[in-house]
Design a protein that fits this description.
heterodimer; A: 303 residues; mainly alpha; ABC transporter involved in vitamin B12 uptake, BtuC; 11 helices; 2 strands; globular; B: alpha/beta; six-stranded mixed β-sheet; four-stranded antiparallel β-sheet; 34% helix; 22% strand; binds adenosine-5'-triphosphate; binds magnesium ion
Chain lengths: 303, 267
């Protein structure tokens, strides 16, 4: 694997990590695997690309993308909390609906930007296109982490964390569980859309089906982060998710480099996530077996 | 004006089915300011159902619940929480395990107040208050503000839950066998702490217990529920001089049944 592939994995990991962080909010703070993600990701891309094509500045176009995702989160949040639809079904409903909405937004199945089009990544030149991507990606990730760490330590953020932790306790302390969940849903999907928006600007291309399988990628990054380091504070956890995303891109790049059929990629994503999810359990039962052997040995030696 | 008024409260489970269960029957109950009412009764008597109805976690079938003269019958738990705080049997249920001691206490300190998204959830100025309050518990928790609550023992968690429930002086405190899951020694400590906090702030309190000695020792009024009805009601005078055998005898007279000792005396 040459250095170019490693560098591109790093900056792709940066942009993906914003999605992974978004997924983390619903997945770990609310304990919900929210499929809305696979619709919000292309939604952010679609809105931003359509806006850029229509002459909107890239900064505004990116913000529109984020807001679009937050609106999708609002819909899912309301479906789940006010209409009491199970979380998984809620996500599937919104995701399916968003497919049509994304087609409406773009007016067709995909949009390609002209090479001369302005994006966040060519607004200012930092020396090379790689440098541009890393600087812009790094700045975006840093802003996201700072805002999230700040928010989740405020009065309201603390309340949101309590809701995911113990809903009886939060209600008993006057927290409106439904509203808090909706806020987290909105933040989460806003970030996921932001990630889609950045990815589309980087590639100069958005496609209505670009969301398929993305939640698996995001979850894998989260699980890698949790395997590397356990029990971290919220801010440190977000940083490890960024690293987890990069590691994941590296693994993918490595596999592709080995000549794996790109058509098999999604199968590979799923298998790998299944393995990652099983690792904590497997390592635990290994430890137990080892412990039992030790105990047995002790007994034998005692006799 | 009574702090709590329960009027003709009825609770049905699975109404209209062969399994219909009339769990509370025409309950009337008034608590004046500072009343500390102990509720006893066998398993399934309807004690928790009564507390759940008052707290709002169970919609009322018929009847009304008023707090400070305000009808709250149709308000949900989080809305009623501006007036009511509550401690459950399970020490895990009153605190958020992944949040720290000070974060949990801060959440309780904001009960009934709108929470903003620009100031710190845990205020520096509040830390002193928390340390003082925790020091009064004599559990050495004042140095552990930053510890995750999930790592503390059941007794410690229950003591903190009590602190959280009383830190804002609620109009009404509801305790549902809140010492039952603790070992006897810790249970006694938490019970004494409860009494102290309630007396200090003159908090109007409804407490369920299976421990007959506690029921007699604490509180100024006593109620015994039986099959969804109030079988015995003792006022302050009647409660003084009450003993466990006398209470058993009274129950037999009133309900015509022998009190099942095993069901009642889990102490
Ligand atoms: N959610 C529910 N659905 C159906 N029936 C219920 C429900 N909650 C309570 N009951 C029934 O209502 C009756 C009263 O129950 P409750 O929990 O109030 O008893 P309790 O006095 O608190 O008993 P314990 O001492 O065992 O806690 C019981 O017959 C119980 O089976
Ligand atoms: Mg009960």
């Amino acid at each position: 694997m040459d250095i170019d592939i490693i560098i591109s994995s790093v900056y792709q990991g940066l942009l993906w990590s914003i999605m992974a962080i978004g997924v983390y909010l619903t997945f770990r703070i609310l304990d919900i695997a929210d499929m809305t993600a696979e619709g919000s990701f292309p939604l952010g891309a679609a809105i931003t690309m359509q806006a850029i094509v229509s002459g909107v500045s890239p900064i505004l176009a990116t913000i529109y993308g984020f807001l679009g995702g937050a609106a999708a989160g609002l819909v899912s949040g309301i479906l789940h909390t006010k209409l009491k639809i199970p979380a998984l079904l809620t996500g599937i409903l919104t995701m399916t609906g968003l497919y049509s909405i994304n087609l409406f937004v773009m007016g067709k199945a995909n949009i390609s930007l002209l090479a001369t089009a302005k994006t966040l990544f060519n607004l200012h030149d930092f020396g090379s296109s790689t440098a541009n991507t890393i600087v812009i990606g790094g700045v975006m990730v840093t802003i996201v982490i700072i805002i999230l760490v700040f928010f989740f330590n405020t009065e309201m953020g603390l309340a949101a964390r309590a809701v995911g932790n113990n809903q009886n306790m939060s209600a008993a302390n006057g927290i409106n569980n439904d509203n808090m969940k909706i806020i987290v849903y909105m933040l989460s999907n806003g970030l996921i859309a932001l990630s889609g928006s950045l990815m589309a600007q980087l590639n100069g291309y958005a496609d209505v089906s670009m969301g398929i399988g993305t939640i698996v990628i995001a979850l894998a990054a989260i699980i890698i982060a949790e395997i590397i380091l356990k029990n971290l504070s919220f801010g440190k956890r977000l940083i490890t998710i960024v690293i987890g995303s990069m590691i994941y891109r590296l693994i993918i790049a490595f596999v592709l480099d080995r000549g794996v059929d790109p058509n098999a990629l999604r199968l590979f994503y799923s298998l790998m996530l299944a393995v990652f999810l099983a690792i904590p359990l497997i390592s635990k039962s290994f430890k137990q077996i080892k412990q039992r052997r030790l105990n047995n040995q002790d007994q034998v030696e005692d006799k | 004006m009574p702090v709590l008024e329960v009027k003709k409260l009825n609770q049905y489970f699975e109404k209209g089915t062969p399994n219909e269960n009339h769990a509370l029957k025409e309950i009337n109950l008034d608590l004046e300011h500072g009343d500390f009412v102990v509720i006893i009764g066998g398993n399934g008597a309807g004690k928790s159902t009564l507390l759940n109805s008052v707290a709002g976690s169970l919609p009322v079938s018929y009847g009304h619940v008023k707090i400070n003269g305000e009808d709250v019958t149709y308000e949900n738990v989080s809305k009623r929480s501006r007036l009511i705080s509550r401690v459950f049997q399970d020490p895990r249920s009153g605190t958020a395990p992944l949040l720290t001691v000070e974060e949990n206490l801060s959440l309780a300190l904001h009960r009934g107040i709108w929470r903003n998204f620009w100031t710190n959830g845990v205020k520096k100025s509040d830390r002193k208050l928390f340390q003082e309050k925790l020091a009064q518990l004599n559990l050495g928790l004042e140095d552990r503000l930053g510890a995750e609550i999930g790592l503390l023992s059941g007794g410690q968690r229950q003591a903190i839950t009590l602190l959280m429930a009383t830190i804002k002086s609620p109009s009404l405190l509801l305790l549902d066998e809140h010492t039952a899951a603790l070992d006897p020694e810790t249970s006694a400590t938490v019970m004494e702490l409860t009494d102290r906090l309630v007396q200090e702030q003159k908090i109007t309190t409804l407490m369920i217990t299976h421990n007959m000695d506690d029921a007699i020792k604490y509180g100024n009024r006593l109620i015994m529920l039986d099959h969804g009805e109030i079988a015995i009601e003792l006022n302050e005078k009647e409660k003084e001089g009450m003993t466990v055998p006398k209470l058993m005898q009274l129950f037999k007279e009133r309900s015509g049944k022998e009190l099942n000792n095993d069901a009642m005396l889990l102490s």
